[in-house]
Give the backbone structure.
Amino acid sequence: MGDQKRIVFPFPGLFKGMWVTLKTLFKKPPTVFYPDEKEVPVPRARGVISLDVEACTVCMLCARECPDWCIYIEGHKEEIPPATEGGRVRTRSKLDRFDIDYALCMYCGICVEVCPFDALFWSPEYEYSEYSIAEMLHDKERLTEWLATVPEAPGLEPS
Amino acid sequence: MTSLEQIHRSEVAVSVELQTPDMTINIGPQHPSTHGVLRLVARIDGERIEEVEPVIGYMHRGYEKLAEVRTYAQITTLVNRIDWVAGFANEIAFIRAVEALAGIEPTPRAQWIRLILAEMARISSHLVFMSSYPLELGATTPLFHALRERERVLDLIESVTGGRFHPNFNRVGGVKPVAGGGSSTKTASQDLPAGFYEGTRLAVEKVLAVCEDIDSLVTGNELIKARTVGVGVIPADKGIEYGLSGPNLRASGIPFDLRKHEAILPYDEVDFDVAWAETGDCYDRYVVRLEEIRQSCRIVLQAIDKVPSGPLQAKVPRVLKVPKGQAYVRNENPKGEFGYYVISEGGRIPYRLKIRSTSFSNLSILPWVLKGALVPDLVAIMGSLDFVLGDVDR
Amino acid sequence: MSDPWTTGWFWADTVIKVAAVLAIMLPGALALIYAEVKVSAHMQHRVGPYYAGGRFGWAQPLADGLKFIQKEDLVPSAADGLVFRLAPYVVIMSTLATFVVIPFGPDLVVRDLDLGAFYLLAISSLSTLGVLMAGWASANKYSLIGGLRAAGQLIAYELPLLLAVVAVVVQAGTMSLPGIVDAQAETVFTVGGFDVALPFILKGQIIGFTIFLIAAVAELSRIPFDMPIAESELTMGYLTEYSGLRFTMFFLGEYASMISLAAVAATFYLGGYWLPGVSDSVLNVLGPGVLLAKVGLLCFVFIWIRWTWPRLREDQLQNLAWRWLIPLALVNIVIAGILKVVL
């Protein structure tokens, strides 16, 4: 190591560095010219959360487990007719409001993980910047739109 | 004493005779070279620093307080953000502490996946050092080379965990097994995706090639040597006294690496050398980190052939209640020794979480090492300690 | 020397010549800025300006210039008004004044002064004054420190620059720049019927050339000698308080002086506008092109060095100048003198 630290007269290290820079000068840059070209994120990338309204039973697990409490849920109970003649009237929960505030969201994924009913999915979409913070609150309809962008799960490495 | 030092001491003597007063200047908190919002109140005499007082706390985010009202899963998410350059490494010690309290052993496959991702976090953190340290000394080109290859590593981490910097992948008992709890998401396994091994081999090859480039651009460069050899020497005993750890301590001549000493991941089954150096100057700290990138690449290449098959997470109850107890677990983070002390009173929420962060201890040596240094050397020394303010202030 | 394009009126001639030189040099500075950003970008494996003015971003320097011009005219209230306002012009005037003596062809020189080399060095050292004025008049503690450091560096590196030029003057026997180019065009020996003439870099001035280049990079305050500007706690050093058109003057001044020093180096060491085996009348047309090609090569080396190496600390910089370059330059003069007498 002592040898490596010595400075020898014709300073070869300086010229080695210059050679690397010269070589790089002639290589093609790996630049991706956003927005004309876009990089495709991996399928598991955590871009935005999408909602399947039909599957949601308003159990509130996601809103409770969120570390930032950025999910706002309101629902009500509805009566639906009994399944068979003369049976009991059933109730079903219906979602009134399901908002995710992406200005607060940490993109941790706890809500997607705890949901027992397959109502939340990750999608790798990332282009939803807005000029006003209020528009970062995605309501039920907007979250359902994201559902179309959810990719297929990638294949796995054989173990 | 070298002749240069003699010249400088006579210079200081002259200014004493001339009664030139010291000047107190404020470096930071907004500053390109302080790795974040660090404020240094420096009393300087001409070019020489007489005394430095670091003022920290500009980035205090209250992790320990936040942890008092969050469940263990939520804390895992938050804890990624302490040392954001190497996100995965922060989670490991915490999860191990909780596993120790709950008495749950992680599955073998999960341990190996944790090892691979931890080493990738190390490569990622050291590549950031490679890019920012020469930049502070004036060499602007290594930044682009290092960060270009870092993208590959981050893409690999993202393909497994979904996040580049904040993976949030560790769970008590292993790693995240499936995407969710519902009937279809329960089958969406979060195991290593197809193409991971090949991608890793390619990334390792490119990272090693860029280490060669950085070697030519920086390690052998005589101007870098003139700026860093003999600058900021930290002797081994001072390093231990101030609680230095990681590459900073290893560069001072103590080959202490928690991965060999007290591993919480299966490092005893892979073959690697501990990178260390003797003198403890800035050049040594830089060389140690470059060598660590190479050793981490070696570990990753071995590990991807050794990952055993099996489940990704041990059997844990859905709502995890951790029994009463205390546990302190430390890990070899890229920046040094990082520990979590978890006190649980039973329940889903810890009573107290104390974080022993690496950069806080590494930073504490600044007043000692900067005493008597020249002002331009301040930048070189601070950069070589490689601290991140998120880690210092938590 | 007879001048083929003379109008016979001294002042009209001079104005035309000065205008021609400015017409080459100011767009040349812009072209050099563009070359710097593009070459440095590709050296760092990225693309550089891409959108301004079409695919290769050639209009980027123009766009930057226009942007600077439309900025607010800020003068700090505590600043010394007149000195603050004059400083950028002192710097750029002294740089542009050096082009008066640089020969672009056998007859293409604005004024062939007998004291060409002396005039050149004297005028270019006036930019140090401009730097000091900028640092002092900014009424900012950090600008002052930066200005003093810059002045110290510039003064320290004037001497090796000067001494390297003295060696060339000794070897050429004349201080006039066209005379120096002619001295390099003299035949040294004949080989198989061909008269071989060597530029000074090959005639024993290789050490002098190296010293001149190092001193030139330091005079330009470029990496590896840009401690005054890239000071970690001094923001931009003496330039901190400057914005808008005044900053443009400093900026253009830096690139113009890069061209000027490269042209001087090309003239003294590489033969200037002269190419072996080409007659004078052809050189009157090709000369500017040849000189600009040599200038381009040297500027490429300046850019290459800037983006590859780190910067030296202030004391190391001064050390290099006073303890290494000056003694070496003195030795070089002695060697040049001996060679001149002996050969």
In short: Chain C touches chain A at residues 39, 41-47, 50, 304-305, 307-309 (CB under 8 Å).
